[in-house]
Amino acid sequence: MRMRTSSPVVLLALVAAGAAAQPRDEALRVVERWTTAFGDSDVEGITNLYASDATFLGTGSTAVLTGHDAIRGYFERALRADRPRSATVQDVVVTVLTPHEVVVTGTDVVTRVRNGATISAAGRVTFILVERDGAWRIAHFHRSAMPAAAACTPLFDGTLHDASIESDGAFSVADGALRRASAAPAGASTTCSRRRAPPSA
Fold it and tell me: What domains can you pick out in the chain, each with its CATH number?
């Protein structure tokens, strides 16, 4: 049986497409490992996803942190309390700058448990990832909370929500993901809390 061979132009196009997809996939794998380590409160695991000279601005940062020691210290404070934790990155936009540099940006929802209640905080997050010596690492990380104007949220079923909402809707948290409901659940409290929870990563 004869095999049909593609033209050199088609082969080059396929190779180029594969090369463009690989950095994107590698970067997203790092972000996935980041969310797993966050949920496991794995301080060492999450720290090792950063480049040794990475810069870092977490939600609770008051200055730019640089390097593993500073980043490890941040996560020791952020992840060791109010467990279990979870993190979901969503609405992701991936920009491949070069075969060795990728920007991943989106929104996220992080949760923690305090006194039996799940506290949810929505934010905006950016990862800049680079490949060095065959390994992908986070070179820069920045997370900020959703705007204060959107911080007043309902209390549903004993869960404190600290997340962006629309004026005509409500949100609930299930499996670590923020979901919009067309109306508040029956019997739910509609008390609006402006209490801000301690910063999350």
Answer: 8-193 (3.10.450.50)
